[in-house]
């Protein structure tokens, strides 16, 4: 049985790690665009900003289990199957990209406006301001947002396991629920609690290490 736990744990790490990579890259890019194109931003584009905001809000409002089923054709098109660990990466990414984008946008918006104006006064280009002012100043908050996103990803991956995606969720359903092996269910819960606790602790430590205001 220990091998099953290790296999399920490895699948969960693979699923969440791969999806987080996509979420962080795409979500951060989306957050930067939303911040820069917002009214009063570095390059205001009200229409573009409004369209992106509507799309982000729309995807954020869809429960993950519904999005998981609705994206089955897209998942099959991208990875060639709707079952297994890699198939879960597609809906997991689509579910949490808008979430991370909004969290990151809030972090970027908290940057001191005086620093941005000082950079503008020195003739810095928009991309230089983003690269050397917005991102460094918001880094602790961005790490905090990434930590929350990873924790949400772990929970969603367990839910994806209930529909054949593998991982700890699949183990809990197949053995703990369908076969009435209560011990398996509680063991999976304990593993998830430990995993989330480790992620939270590591994220907080990392965020503090980059917070120059402390």
Itemize the secondary structure elements and their pairings.
Elements: H1 2-37, H2 46-60, H3 64-70, H4 72-79, H5 85-109, H6 113-121, H7 126-161, H8 167-177, H9 182-210
Helix pairs in contact: 1-2, 1-5, 1-7, 1-8, 2-5, 4-5, 5-7, 6-7, 7-8, 7-9, 8-9
Give descriptors for this structure:
single chain, 214 residues, mainly alpha, elongated
Please tell me about this protein's structure:
The chain has 214 residues and is mainly α. Helix content is 82%, strand content 0%. Helix 1 crosses helix 8 (167-177) and helix 7 packs antiparallel against helix 9 (182-210). It is elongated.
Write a brief structural summary.
With about 210 residues, the protein is mostly helical. It has helices spanning about 1-35, 45-60, 65-70, 70-80, 85-110, 115-120, 125-160, 165-175, 180-210.
- What is the SS-derived class? mainly alpha
Order of helices and strands: HHHHHHHHH
Share of helix, binned: over 70%
Radius of gyration, in Å, reads 20 Å
**Strand tally:** 0
- Beta-strand level of the residues, as a percent range? under 5%
Shape verdict: elongated
Chain oligomer state: single chain
If you average the pLDDT, what whole number results?
88
* Biggest β-sheet strands, sense, barrel: none
The number of helical elements comes to: 9
Show unreliable segments. Answer: none
Distance between the terminal alpha carbons, to the nearest Å? 46 Å
């Amino acid at each position: 049985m220990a091998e099953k736990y290790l296999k399920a744990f490895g699948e969960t790490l693979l699923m969440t790690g791969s999806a987080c990579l996509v979420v962080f890259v795409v979500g951060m890019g989306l957050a930067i665009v939303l911040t820069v194109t917002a009214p009063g931003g570095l390059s205001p584009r009200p229409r573009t900003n409004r369209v992106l905001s509507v799309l982000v809000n729309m995807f954020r409002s869809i429960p993950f289990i519904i999005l998981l089923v609705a994206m089955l054709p897209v998942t099959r098109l991208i990875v060639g199957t709707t079952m297994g660990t890699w198939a879960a990466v597609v809906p997991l990414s689509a579910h949490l990209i808008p979430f991370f984008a909004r969290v990151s946008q809030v972090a970027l918006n908290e940057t001191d406006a005086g620093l941005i104006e000082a950079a503008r006064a020195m003739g810095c280009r928009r991309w230089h301001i983003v690269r050397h002012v917005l991102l460094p100043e918001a880094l602790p908050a961005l790490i905090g947002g990434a930590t929350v996103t990873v924790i949400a990803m772990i929970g969603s991956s367990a839910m994806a396991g209930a529909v054949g995606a593998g991982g700890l969720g699949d183990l809990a359903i197949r053995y703990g629920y369908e076969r009435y092996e209560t011990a398996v269910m509680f063991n999976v819960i304990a593993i998830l609690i430990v995993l989330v606790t480790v992620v939270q602790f590591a994220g907080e430590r990392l965020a503090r290490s980059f917070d120059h205001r402390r």
